[in-house]
Amino acid sequence: MEAAATACSKSVQGATLSKCLNRGFATLTAGALGVGAKYFADLFGKEGEPIVLGFLVFTLGALGTFTRFFPHMKRRYDYGILIFVLTFSMVTVSGYRVDKILELAHQRLSTILIGAATCMIISLVVCPVWAGEDLHKLVSSNLEKLATFLEGFGSEYFSFSKIDESGKVSKEDKGFLGAYKAVLNSKATEESLANFAWWEPGHKSFRLRHPWKQYLKIGVLARECACHLQALSGYFNSKPQLPTEFHKRIEEACTKMSIESSKVLKELSSSIRTMTQPSSSSAETHLRHSKIAVDDFKVILATTETLLFSNKLDLLEIFPAITVASVLIDVINCVDKISEAVEDLSVQAHFKKAKKNKESSPSPEKPPQHHLLHRGIVKPVVDVDDVEGGDSVVIEICGGGAEAAVTEVKPPTVKKREEQIVHV
């Protein structure tokens, strides 16, 4: 019983339940089949009994070993299949030498059940540690680490070293550079916790059929984003000491892309941690600002092509900065995918709606409009006393090229007047 309790006792509740249930059902099934195999082999006499038992042990052992190669079976029932093969072999072979086969099977089954029940009671009642809760915190923490890197990168990459009053070159705080590394190595932990969480009953805010697979999807997207951040980390260590003219031109756009992306990730991390639906107004606003910064960078890049063709810029000098900006664009695309995945998680897991504080929460800033989006007619105010004698001007805004035309229009009054229609 002590050996059974030691084998079934694990650090988290899901692992304990997985081990106990796998071991219990495997022992019960294998014990019953072992007893049946013993009585079946007795039908062939003393000479045929060992041959039949050996054939059955070899056949079920081969089937059990082959079944363990299936990914789904190996992920959830690998331990149970192993115990099944061992128990069946022990009961079958022992039955050939021991006459009291039922007593042996009953003794082993009762030992397993008592040990497993003891572990389950301790894990459920005395000291419960939930794998699902650990997975929930891990995914939220990973998004927070990505946001920390982007926030530090956006504020430090374009802030070149300056000489302070003592004449020494000031060094930036590079502690944020290693924030993404833990995210890259979290795959095995996430899959293990998700597997154990599948066995756990409903607890706290986690329901019985909680969407644990969605956490794995968010983890995959977070690791994809972390790979891009690893590339940015390499460019940060090799950035130039003095800024070029091109660096100054793209500084605002790239900094905005990095900072706004970090704000989106912080919003999503807070949403997962508090199990509240992500604030669509805030997250979408930051994401929209980052995409506007991408458009600004593309405009700057289009004007830079002219300078390159005229040999006023060196391609080797601006190539690292262009690469950094392109990686930031890929990061924004990953953040957009993560936002959609978190939104799906909030729907599937039935996250509660966030409370809106109208007094403290500022209204989202509207993005600047770079182009004229409407078409209309602007009529200037004319003095009432001068309507009959004066001229009125009608300005029609078409959004195309600027053309002016003057036509005569008969006024509704007796006197004639001229109206100038100006197309802008």
From TrEMBL:
Cellular compartments annotated: Membrane
GO CC annotation terms, alphabetical: membrane
Entry membrane topology: Multi-pass membrane protein
Region span, Disordered: 353-372
UniProt keyword annotations, A-Z: Ion channel, Ion transport, Membrane, Transmembrane, Transmembrane helix, Transport
PANTHER family: ALUMINUM-ACTIVATED MALATE TRANSPORTER 10
Family to which the UniProt record says this protein belongs: Belongs to the aromatic acid exporter (TC 2.A.85) family.
The name this protein goes by in its record: Aluminum-activated malate transporter 8
